[in-house]
Amino acid sequence: MERMKNNVAIIGKLYSQKLKVGKSNNPNSKRYNDRYINGSFTINTGDKDHTNLVNVRANFVWEYRNADDKEAGKVNETFTLLSSFLPVDGKDNTYINSGEEAPKLYVKGTYVTNDYYTTGQDGSPILMGGTGIDLGYVTQTDDERENYARFAGDILATKFIRTEEDNGDPKGIVEGYTFNWRNEISPVKITIRVPQAIDYFYSEGIEEQNPSLVYVECNFVNKRLVVEEEKVGVFGKSNMTRSTKYIKETEMYYADPVRGIGEEITMQEKEQLFKDRTQMLANKKAEYESRQNGEATTTAKPKTAAWDSAKTSAPVKKATPKIKDAITEDLPFNPMPEPKAPEPTPEVEAANEPAIDDWMSDFI
After folding, report:
1. Which of 14, 168, 187, 211 has the fewest CB atoms found within 10 Å of its own CB?
2. Using CA atoms, how far apart are residues 364 and 56, in angstroms rounded to an integer?
3. Cα 73 to chain center, whole Å?
4. Which residues 6+ apart lie within 8 Å of 81 measured at CB?
């Protein structure tokens, strides 16, 4: 199986940050005494109401990328920039504290789900998680584009729901999975409002036993809606109420669904992806229960079959199947065109830090 695409690009002001500096304290680690930054920061993509805020997770960004850089004194530029976000004399340079003086950033990353376990009301472990952006690269920019927060990549669509907006307009929801840099899958939901696209996905009969591998491009959108409602009391007096509703979604604006099961991914590989995910969640649950019992957890993350396949396989160009004539006319589409998770040990994460590959760096 080839390495699937998962590219995120965001442009905007640094709005807030929850970052901290740590140090590896395991004397058996190759990174013993090395510093790292961990946490998250939020980007405001340009809207004046500051509602389109995108959270970015910075997972163990090391001061030195490797031993050679450490010996040469070459500090990781991402570590240096993230360090500049930290408070000085109790004040940081975020928009919340510094207004328009906050730095404007260009962020690249991947769109994934942060799976973790916590304790339920009955005391048993329950699986939690939320989709978000894992940082790959960040730099300062003077790019003037606004409301620029985009995902472009492959999804394995396993369910489609046809529904309506509150005002009756058609809406579709694609449920499926993105792929991280190891080709491990993460569950996502994507909203569609293009009528022709809704009709197409509905006609495909997508379900877990009939999945579809689709390349999509989406906007990350946060909306703040003010809803007014008139209520009439028991004595006939009317009263106007106003409430605010926040909507956070990933909205598709482009898709290329001609890449299907049997082309870039086989049904056997698809089944292996789900087995790998089941095993990953079982490992996380076991690690969580061990921590709750006060036991040490030093198990490194196992390499999955998908990861081995992605590492050794090169992308292969496939012939484009014929697209149904019914969906090729006048489409604005391509025809058919913060939860707090238990922190892993730095020693485990050190082996998992991806490089910025060419397939990510050419997405703008």
Report:
1. 168
2. 17
3. 32
4. 138, 139, 140
**Is 110 in contact with 151 (CB distance < 8 Å)?**
no
Q: Is 271 left (phi over 0), alpha (psi -120 to 50) or beta?
A: alpha
- Residue 242 bridge partners (DSSP): 228
pLDDT per residue rounded down to tens, the chain (364 residues)? 778 899 999 999 999 999 999 999 888 888 888 999 999 999 998 766 667 888 999 989 999 999 899 999 999 999 999 999 999 888 899 999 988 889 999 999 999 888 888 888 888 888 887 778 999 999 999 998 888 999 999 999 999 999 998 889 999 999 999 998 888 899 999 999 999 889 989 988 898 888 888 899 999 987 777 777 777 766 767 777 777 777 788 999 988 875 555 556 777 888 888 899 999 899 989 988 888 887 655 544 555 555 455 554 444 333 333 222 223 333 333 333 333 333 334 443 444 444 333 333 333 3
203: nearest Cα among 330, 321, 327:
327
> Under DSSP, is residue 298 helix (H, G, I), strand (E, B) or coil?
coil
Rg of the chain over CA atoms, in angstroms?
Answer: 23
Q: Are strands 53-62 and 125-140 parallel, antiparallel or unpaired?
A: parallel
Q: What are phi and psi of 210, to 5 degrees?
A: -135, 65
Residue 291's H or E segment, with its range, is: helix 267-292
* CA dist list (Å): 124 to 19, 75, 285, 318, 344: 30, 43, 11, 47, 21
Residue at token pair 């019992």: 293
- Rounded to whole angstroms, what are the CA distances from 328 to 196, 199, 303, 323, 336? 9, 12, 41, 7, 6
